[in-house]
Amino acid sequence: MSFNSENIIEEYIVKETDTLVDIASKLDLPILELRLINGLYNNDIYVGQRLKVYPKKTYIVKPNDSLFSIGKKFGVAEDKLKHINNIDEGKLYEGKRLVISDPIVKYTVKQHDDIEKIAQTFKILVEELIEYNGINDYQIFTGQELYIKMPSTVNNPSFFHVLVNKSFTLPQYYVPEKLTVPNVSFPFEYFHEKKLMREDGARALECLFKKANEDGIDLYALSGYRSYSRQKFIFESGVKEEGFEITNRLSAKPGNSEHQTGLAMDVTCPQIKYSLDQSFENTKEGHWIKENAHKFGFILRYLKGKEHITGYQYEPWHIRYVGKETAISIKNLGLTFEEYLGIE
Ligand SMILES: [Zn+2]
């Protein structure tokens, strides 16, 4: 198991007097879970050992928040928030820490179960099941307890500020309304779904390209909307070629791509041969995007040095439409979208 596996993005380094029991209680995790995540067969640990820790997505209640407003913000159903936090509306108070993402589900293997079947039931990948539970050679046994991280499916996918990342998933059948081809330059002529964007994003992108053009910036749009099924194909091809870990770091699982919102666009320029490469940052087009995108309502979604928050490598080419006012605040605060929304 390696450090970059999905969702296990934090670690705890064992100190001199630590016991596994202490650590589990400190981290508020069941000891069995801690052992499973780290592939430990008993409670033995050693000083300096790096333990993987499952991060909890939480949100601190602010004045005037309601379960409804918080649910809307994160695309989580009000009922689900209530349920996973074990609360009644009346008990919501300022400063309370709410868990936003779903809890981990424990599943006991039944006779005739196999890994593929379980993965299918929970709509997760076999690789995830294996990684998370430290399974060898696809071997599971009746009575075995498996931990399953259920993806949080957003219930308001068309919400303008919807957060889509490795923890928050768009529904499989979500297709944005009013997809349209923005009137901007593409490095290819033919029609392809990746030319599409949501109406509001498309109009804003046209303004951005127009100004760039006036400033002598040679910008091209490469990839916008991506359907669930195309993302699925891309991810599965990646896993076949590069393996799960590398693919997961560079690309999104189906439902976890912001491109499915129709509000994202990857941009490039001739100097880097229309590729999506970090060297875009050093082109005059990359500079211009970094300095001007917010004025048109776009944010750079995957910032340098914020990989541990966004879950993705630095992508100077990926812009997301959030509206002018929000984009300007985010840019001025130097935050990721996750931080801006208050996910901790
Ligand atoms: Zn992108």
From TrEMBL:
GO MF term set: carboxypeptidase activity
SMART domains: LysM
Domain LysM: 10-53, 57-100, 105-148
A GO biological-process term: proteolysis
Keywords: Carboxypeptidase, Hydrolase, Protease
PROSITE patterns attached to this UniProt entry: LYSM
Domain of life of the organism encoding this protein: Bacteria
Keyword Ligase: no
InterPro entries for the chain: DD-CPase-like, LysM, LysM_dom_sf, VanY-like_core_dom, VanY/YodJ_core_dom, Zn_M74/Hedgehog-like
SUPFAM superfamilies, per the entry: Hedgehog/DD-peptidase, LysM domain
Name of the protein in its database record: LAS superfamily LD-carboxypeptidase LdcB
Species whose genome carries this gene: Serpentinicella alkaliphila
